[in-house]
Amino acid sequence: MDFVPFSFVDLIDIVLVASIMYWIYRMTRRTNAIYILSGIIAIYLMWVVVRALNMELLSSILGQLISVGVIALIIVFQPEIRHFLWLIGARQKQFTFLRRIFSMREENKTRINIAPIVTACRDMSESKTGALIVIRRESDIHSIEEGGIAIDAKTSVSLLKNIFFKNAPLHDGAVVINGDRIVAAKCILPVTQNEVPKEYGTRHRAALGLSETADAVTVVVSEETGAISIAFDGTLHHRIEPSRLQQTLEQYLVSHATTRTEQA
After folding, report:
1. Which of 21, 61, 78, 197 is the most buried (most CB within 10 A)?
2. Between 43 and 88, where is the model more confident?
3. In the chain, where does DSSP find H-type helix?
4. 204 near 121, Cβ under 8 Å?
5. Distance (Å, rounded) from C-alpha 132 to C-alpha 151?
6. What is the pLDDT at residue 138?
7. 220: part of which helix (H) or strand (E)?
8. Among 62, 37, 68, 34, which Cα is nearest to 48's?
9. What is residue 31's three-state secondary structure?
């Protein structure tokens, strides 16, 4: 009986394939994409069986479907692929020099003014005024800013509260803050496609959606309960105590700015 030779390279090949399959599972396990992926696997297995049985007509039809499968996968899984590639580039410190080389925009050296954001969110929490505030970090979200109404004003408590006042024309949508200035208001954010608890409203889903594709920090004030939440890195930190809001924001923003300064 002849044995198939098994080398160290074959072991690496198996480990890499298993790792890729695990990443695909992680990206799709809480989304509708898992059902689409299951359908694709079922079609492929059917094609293998049909070929083994020499059913030429059906094999040809399924073969044509599979031949364009790569393009179909890119179209169907575009959000997941984008998020996956962003995770690779954003989280790996060894790629920092590449981001510096290929970055085409000037680094924002203005320190983010957290105080008015914290005060405004606390006041809006007490009055149960809904709010959605995006604080930029490194990711380019110009397309989101351009889709809103340009403001370009210094961040202040009064301005934030006036924007999100229930009857104000700009209250619907998100405010984008860059450095110490409000860049735009009434911005539309991408809504997450992942499964989330039913109590999460549109603002929470939009905050999660942005956090899945950009490294911005998004603060949400619930209009129904007044609860404050922060979305970052694909996770929604729910019901943050107003007294801890500044400390939590500093954790994401001030420490991040310090790290950038040390790397420079």
Report:
1. 61
2. 43
3. 8-28, 33-52, 56-67, 69-76, 78-91, 96-102, 114-126, 142-146, 157-163, 202-211, 242-252, 254-263
4. no
5. 15
6. 81
7. strand 217-221
8. 62
9. coil
Residues 136, 176: contact at Cβ < 8 Å?
A: yes
> In this predicted structure, which of 71-80, 87-96, 162-171, 203-212 has the lowest mean pLDDT?
87-96
**Cα(73)–Cα(59) distance, integer angstroms:** 20
What share of the chain in percent tops pLDDT 90? 28
pLDDT number for residue 56: 82
pLDDT digits (tens, 9 = 90+) for 36-86: 677 777 877 888 888 888 888 888 887 777 777 667 767 766 666 666 666
Sorted by where each begins, the domain ranges of the chain are: 8-102, 114-263
Indicate the class that CATH gives domain 114-263.
alpha beta
Q: How confident is the model at residue 126 (pLDDT cuts 50, 70, 90)?
A: very high
Report pLDDT for 57.
83
Strand 131-135 relative to strand 174-178: parallel, antiparallel, unpaired?
Answer: parallel
**CA 63 to chain centroid:** 35
Q: How far apart are CA 94 and CA 89, in angstroms?
A: 9
Within 8 A by CB and 6+ apart from 89, the residues are 95, 98, 99
Rounded-to-integer distance, Cα 200 and Cα 206, Å: 10
